[in-house]
Amino acid sequence: xxxxxxxxxxxxxxxxxxxxxxxxxxxxxxxxxxxxxxxxxxxxxxxxxxxxxxxxxxxxxxxxxxxxxxxxxxxxxxxxxxxxxxxxxxxxxxxxxxxxxxxxxxxxxxxxxxxxxxxxxxxxxxxxxxxxxxxxxxxxxxxxxxxxxxxxxxxxxxxxxxxxxxxxxxxxxxxxxxxxxxxxxxxxxxxxxxxxxxxxxxxxxxxxxxxxxxxxxxxxxxxxxxxxxxxxxxxxxxxxxxxxxxxxxxxxxxxxxxxxxxxxxxxxxxxxxxxxxxxxxxxxxxxxxxxxxxxxxxxxxxxxxxxxxxxxxxxxxxxxxxxxxxxxxxxxxxxxxxxxxxxxxxxxxxxxxxxxxxx
Length: 359
Prior knowledge:
This protein is mostly helical. It has helices at 6-21, 25-38, 50-70, 77-85, 93-105, 109-121, 136-139, 146-151, 159-177, 181-190, 195-272, 291-338; strands spanning 123-126, 131-134, 157-158, 277-282, 285-290. The protein has a three-stranded antiparallel sheet. Strands 4-5 form a two-stranded antiparallel sheet. One of its GO terms (molecular function) is kinase activity.
């Protein structure tokens, strides 16, 4: 494949995009890879400026990342990109950031840590120019990849893009995925960063640290609440068990009483079985008294006789008391009569005359 014009490159990129729309991800990744590798060796009829060239390389690289994600092979995407571009630092930064964020999302943090550390270490900050350039030890290395060698002759990375990669490494990977904010802060303090970029990263990390501390406190509170709830549930279970035991004992006692009553009733029924009913004949009339009514009559007769007997005893006791009182009164009158001394001559004796007074 050889491109003679910029239009042909964009036409092939459109074909690769249609492959992704038709879910032909293998074909899309293969075509995008061929486009990237063919561009540096193409003889264009009219010159293509660097901005348009970078845009085409970036679009083709994005198609590869998208296709690998849909194929479930995002873990291998940087292996493919390094092979196509010749080196990790030669990958367009937007393609690199997209692949890195997908690896973070899918949890491939160990692989991504090595890739990010390698990528960030390839650049040095040019204070005068205000950009990041490839380190001299990298530019002195020769490569068989013409695209890589062409990249070495120019600045590749702005401060903005470098800080975006650094944010993925420190905030998303070290602080969040590895939960190691101290290591992230240490890297920011020692890294070759512009001062405003360093301060921005430190503020993000400090804010994240506060958020994680609050989350830890809430988690501890939830654990404490859960523990107290478990204790409360256990207490309620114990109380419920005790209450259930009391209820079972009461039910058992009630059953015993009911069984005792039932046994007494059965015995009474057995006793009354011999007296199921009584037939009474008065003249031409015949009455049949059931056993239940018979038992009721017997009970009434028993209580009436008992009351009458009690009543007779009461009457007899009252009469006896009255008789004894009368006897005692008569005896007291006789004793009084015979105890008084009477003079038999009192009727014929004269009353002595009163002495006369002398005037």
